Amino acid sequence: EDSDLKMGISHTFNSLTNNTFMVMQDGIYNIDYDFDVEDTSAGASDIDTAARLILINGTEIPGSIFETDITRQGTEVELSHDFLMEALAGQQFTLQFIATDEDVQISTHGTFGVSPESATVVMFKIANLP
């Protein structure tokens, strides 16, 4: 990770499970997340899957949730969503992935590197708070 690219956002990659971010400045942020999930179960599927941003205290950030269905076994679907978020300096939040079946996982498209999972989170501060 390049610190110039993370201006105003704190995220230290120290393990494959670190999905916590912190904003360093008050403002309105445009957040975009994107990842693929797949059903690896042996049987037929009709699974709900979703993602959302939540504050560290467990509060869902309004407008952040996006849900889709996996209707066939072995199918891969994309969860992609962008929204605006008002944040105060020091607020921490995390990206949460949820599914109604334990056989749903984030897809892996890469074969190289420490973390080949195909998930991205992009954040831009677009305005100051009044």
UniProtKB/TrEMBL annotation:
It comes from marine sediment metagenome. InterPro entries: Tumour_necrosis_fac-like_dom (IPR008983). This is BclA C-terminal domain-containing protein.
